[in-house]
Amino acid sequence: MLKEVERWLSTRSWSVTDRPLHQLMAAKRTTGSTVSVVLPALNEEETVGEIVAIIRHDLMQQVPLVDEIVVVDSGSTDRTSEVAAAAGARVVHRDEILPRIPTVPGKGEVLWRSLLVTSGDIVCFIDADLKEFSSDFVSGIVGPLLTEPGVDLVKAMYDRPLGQAAGQGGRVTELMARPLLNMHWPQLAGFVQPLGGEYAARRSLLEQLPFPVGYGVELGMLVDALHLVGLDALAQVDVGVRKHRHQDGQALGRMAAAIYRTAQLRLARGHMIRPSLTQFERGEDGFEPRTHSVDTEERPPMSEITEYVKRRAA
């Protein structure tokens, strides 16, 4: 490990217990910062309501740390929107945001568009499929952005159990993202959960970043932020244990392909002859190929979008 990373681990890796809520509230009052929490959601009616309710109770009613909770529905066919609204979130459908640009499927697309329907100086992203959720996920990653002026982006780190096996979750992280980062961006080797969906950042940084529309958004954002603001502006906070719905092996394969493509674009901005992935499923006549396109589209920095610029100037 690079000496720079060893130093970073000792100065930019914290625990949620390092910053109690009263300290965060004092810093929020001093800085005048506002905080938006965004939950990208697709068919998450079983979990989204509890997450919203806990954030509202702990961080809006008990203490006013969070100023708004926005659930961006990316085309759910279940009751995600109704459950989220009943729990107290403002729900916005992905297709209603920036309608002049047709939407494409993908998590990164939703996160990018969320900048247009939130107002916080600090934007906190939380996945909507978390189970046994704790508001520490929010306060933990927002904390350094309120108390450390030089920090611009904070990732959550945690244990990720797979079934009854401790620490075996995050398979795409271990098999794809971590090797890529260690080989090509060794300054980022200290991140425990580089692909984790729980992170917070200053709006002033997010609006300068391009957003890969799909699964590559977390890796792309981390790499681009490193180049834009430097390692010391990035941090991570231990928030305990993350439990969520796990995807099957083929879905993980598609995720890995998108992440590799995102890395490749950042390494060379070059041309990929075949941005697709063929997988196999056993059918009546043996193994049948299934070919999926790999997410290659990226949205430009939000600071280049006319509607966003006008809204910020208003």
Can you offer a commentary on this structure?
- The chain is α/β, with parallel strands linked by helices and 314 residues long.
- The chain is 39% helix and 21% strand.
- It contains 11 helices and 14 strands.
- It has helices at 3-12, 21-31, 48-62, 80-86, 107-114, 136-147, 171-184, 203-206, 217-229, 249-268, 306-313, and strands at residues 13-15, 35-41, 68-73, 90-93, 122-125, 130-131, 153-159, 199-202, 211-212, 234-241, 243-244, 276-283, 286-293, 298-299.
- It has an 8-stranded mixed sheet with strand order 1-10-7-8-5-2-3-4, sandwiched between helices. The chain has a two-stranded antiparallel ribbon with strand order 6-11. The protein has a two-stranded antiparallel sheet with strand order 9-14.
- It is globular, with a radius of gyration of 19 Å.
- GO terms for molecular function: glycosyltransferase activity.
Tags for this model:
two-stranded antiparallel sheet; 11 helices; single chain
| End-to-end distance | 47 Å
Order of helices and strands: HEHEHEHEHEEHEHEHEHEEHEEEH
Radius of gyration (Å) = 19 Å
- Give the fraction of residues assigned to helices: 25-40%
Q: In oligomeric terms, what are we looking at? A: single chain
| Count of separate DSSP helical elements | 11
| Structural shape | globular
* Biggest sheet statistics: 8 strands, mixed
- Proportion of β residues? 15-25%
Give the number of DSSP strands: 14
Strand order of the largest sheet: 1-10-7-8-5-2-3-4
Which ranges are low-confidence, i.e. pLDDT below 50, for 5 or more consecutive residues? none
GO molecular function: glycosyltransferase activity
InterPro entries: Glyco_trans_2-like, Glycosyltransferase_2, Nucleotide-diphossugar_trans
Region (Disordered): 283-307
Keywords: Glycosyltransferase, Magnesium, Transferase
